[in-house]
Amino acid sequence: MYHVKLGGILFLHLAYNQNGGNERKLVIYGSEQEFEAFKDYLKKYKKELEERNVQIVYKDSKKFKIELYGYDGEFKKSIDKQNLQIILEEIDQMPMGKIEKMLRYKNFI
User: Fold this and answer.
1) Which terminus of the chain has fewer Cβ atoms in its 10 Å neighbourhood, N or C?
2) Residue 36 CB-density burial (10 A; 0-12 exposed, 13-18 middle, 19+ buried)
3) Is 8 left (phi over 0), alpha (psi -120 to 50) or beta?
């Protein structure tokens, strides 16, 4: 939870999904080998994913894909390639993502 006062406006950030969590979820579908290879790629984005409160979940599947779920637990985006920049841009365009981006920029979070 963040309490930040900006120009006389108080932002109260309470982000809870249906399961009582306060993180976005990135569900990685693929084989164990694909996921092991993807872990190295994830390390490059560790800071950005942490800043955006993203939890990584792996699910075994024959086809590789990445799904993003918001704070509300709702599905937001699916991609079938290893490109986390697309996911980060999607998060930054979400209503809460815009607020978080501004707070990061102002060094409040």
Assistant:
1) N
2) exposed
3) left
Structural domain including 58 reads: 24-105
Helix (H) or strand (E) holding 59: strand 54-60
Give the count of domains, the chain.
1
**Three-class SS state of 91:** helix
71 in Cβ contact with 15 (< 8 Å): yes
Consecutive H or E run containing 33: helix 32-43
User: For residue 11, is it within any domain?
Assistant: no
Give the per-residue pLDDT at 58: 94
Which pLDDT score, from 0 to 100, does residue 97 have?
A: 86
* Dist. CA 54–CA 71, nearest whole Å: 9
pLDDT tens for 9-66 read 444 444 444 454 589 999 999 998 998 888 889 999 999 999 999 999 999 999 999 9
pLDDT of residue 14: 44
Position 14 in a domain: no
